[in-house]
Structure formats: structure tokens, C-alpha cells
Amino acid sequence: MAEMQGKPNGRLLSLDFYRGLTMFLLIAEFTHLFTFFVLPQFEGTFIHTIGSQLHHVRWEGLHFWDLIQPFFMFIVGVAMPLSFSKRMARGDSYKDLTIHAVKRAFLMLLLGWGLYCIDPGEIVFRFQNVLAQLGVAYILAFLVIRKSVVIQIGFSVVLLLITEGLYRFFPVEGFTHAFVNGENFPAWFNMLISGEDSGGGWAMFNAIPTAAHTIWGVLAGQLLIGNYSAKKKLQILFAAGSIALLIGYGLSPLTPIIKKIATSTFVFASGGWALIALALCYWVIDIKKYQKGVLFFAVVGMNPLFIYLFAHVGGADLIKKVFLPFSNALFGWTGELGSQIILSCIVLFMLWYICYWMYKKKLFIRI
Predict the structure, then answer these.
(1) What is the pLDDT of residue 296?
(2) Per the domain annotation, does 202 fall within a domain?
(3) Backbone phi, then psi, for 249, in 5-degree steps?
């Protein structure tokens, strides 16, 4: 393997930043900070415009927030060849890597499913969240990680073609509209698994098409640790991202871009943005060496599973309860809305500080 650019210890700073920023935005959602940006009093303002981009599109289209899960699944793919190359360097066999990959995929699927059972306090069968879907995508990406670039790309395209075919042609009585919310194959599949079309149109089947994000991440990771020059790597990343964007947006009149059911055009468009984002991070941080402030976000990405689960199961709400009386006493003069926004910022800072404290203590929770 070629020597990686970035930190002296071999870490890729651009990947640390990319992962950390993505996780920072994910945990920010649990503070409810973004909900304030779309309040009626901000309608028609720049704040509302930004706020709308920090929420999912209702159905068809693409907002910035619709890219966060694809970014995360892509980043996991980028990290796979980096991690596995280190394991092989220390003597792990392919069998060892396989056992590790299967265990990790199963635990992600289990944890993702478990999160859905917490709120109702009963067993439900829902697998729409990022952890559950990543469990499936991870093992699919691992199956082809040692194959050629052509086979990996071909496999990802086959997954998208299967998705397109099922959405358009799978004969299910009562589910006849391929891209209408609640009347399509993904809605039927939800009913099949959980007994309800749960989640406001979010599809469990998404794990299949969005596995392409993780596979493309694997290819990007293999490129970054390969023997090409930094300039060549950058050119390939930008070219691949541009091609994916052209396919995604170019075919959108035929197949609409819909995140909730991960249409093929959505996967291409969001995958293209994921590649472009990695290329920009790589260019700015690892090539141009603009690295000030990278650590602020990187520490969040060094414990992604822990901080996501902590925030998800009530950690953010607990922090909010602890700081609520102090926030009201100190910032009540800003008004109800002002004090709520400040409190959300405090919660976000404390979530970040937990990650920073764990980084300083060298506590890294992985599966």
C-alpha cells in the first residue's frame, strides 16, 4: 500500500474532517436546533432558506440534508480499505477480516433495529435508520472489496438496476404506482416486514440501492491509498463525482430523485455529491494543507457510533434538562425563542465536548 498523506501516523485528515463534520450535523439534529430556522417568523428570510436545506424534502427533490445519510454510508466505505489494510499489515487473514465484517454488519443491524424498539417499549420490526441499513450495505460492500474496479462498479449498478426493476415492474396488487408515496414496492415491502408502511414513506428496502454509496466509498478509499499521485487521485474523484451527478440529474425526468425510497437517480446524485465532497476535503486539507480547525470536527468522527447512539437514546435530552434552568436564568432576557436557540447550542457544544474528552482520554468505542 502507498503511504497515505495527512497525519504523520498515517491517518487521512480529510477523511477525519469529512466524517466528523457529517457526524456533527447528525447529532445537531437531536438538539432540535434546525427546527428553529424554519419557524413562520423566519419565512422569506435567508435563515428560512438555510433552514429548509437542513430538512428532508417532503418527497421528490434533493435538499442538503438528504445528503447526510449517503455521506455517512459513503464515508464508512472509504474507511473500509484503510482499516482492512492495517489489519492485514498486522497479520490478520482474509478469514479474520470476514469474521470481523460479518460481526460488525450484524451489530449495526441489531443496534439500528433496537433503536426502533426503545420508544414504543415493545418489539417492532423496522429497519429504516442509517445503522440498520448500513449493516446490510457494509456486508454487500465487503463481498466485492477484493474484486476489480470494474466488478465493484458493475455490482453497484446491478443493485440499482434490480431496484429500478422492482420499483417499476414487481406485480403487487394495490401497489401500482412506482414513485407515489405509499403506493409503491417499498411501501409493500415495509408492510411485508413490519405489517405497516411505517416511517412516513421511508423504505426498509433502501439498504439495497444505497449499498452503492458504501461500495463507491470503498473504491474511493482504495484510490486514496493507491500509488497514483495526489493530483491524479483528485482528478479521478472529481470525474467520478461529476459523472454520477450527470447520470442522477440527467435521468431524473424518467426516474424522479426520491430519497425516502432511494431511487436509482437519488443514489447517483447523492453519490456524486459524496465523491465531490471527499475530493474537496482531500484537496483543501491533504493537498493544500489548510488544516486549522480540522480537529474540532474530527474528534466527533472518532467516536461516531457512540455519540450517535448516545444522542439518539436520550443523551441530548438529558443534557438539555440539566442545563435548562441555568439557561433560562442566564439567557431568559433574550426571549423564549432566543433562550431555546441558545439552549440547543449549549446541548450541541456538550455533545461535542464529550467527543473531545473521549479523544483526549484516548477512548474510542468501536465494533
Answers:
(1) 93
(2) yes
(3) -75, -35
Residue 2 lies in a domain: no
| 19 is a domain residue | yes
pLDDT tops 80 at residue 274: yes
Give the pLDDT of residue 198: 59
| CA pair distance 70, 265, nearest whole angstrom | 13
| Residues forming beta bridges with residue 84, ordered by sequence position | none
pLDDT at 13 > cutoff 80: yes
CA distance 172 to 297: 46
Residues in the chain: 367
Output the nine-digit C-alpha cell for 335.
426571549
- Contact (CB, 8 A) for 4 and 224: yes
Model confidence pLDDT, tens digit, residues 214-237: 999 999 999 999 999 999 999 999
Q: Is residue 6 part of a domain?
A: no
Kind and range of the H or E run holding 74: helix 68-89
Cell numbers for 100 = 470481523
Task: Identify the sign of the CA torsion 253, 53, 311, 274.
Answer: positive
Domain containing residue 195: 13-360
- Would you say 241 and 279 are in contact if contact means Cβ atoms under 8 Å apart? yes
In order of 1, 156, 207, 219, the CA distances from 151 in angstroms are 21, 9, 20, 11
**Cell numbers given for 80:** 473500509
Q: What is the DSSP letter of 45?
A: S
Q: How deeply is 26 buried, as exposed, middle or buried, from its count of CB atoms within 10 A (0-12, 13-18, 19+)?
A: buried
Find out whether 359 and 302 touch, Cβ atoms under 8 Å.
yes
Residues in Cβ contact with 192 at an 8 Å cutoff, skipping those fewer than 6 apart: none
Instruction: List, for residues 300-323, the tens digit of each pLDDT value.
Output: 988 988 999 999 888 999 999 999
- How many domains, the chain? 1
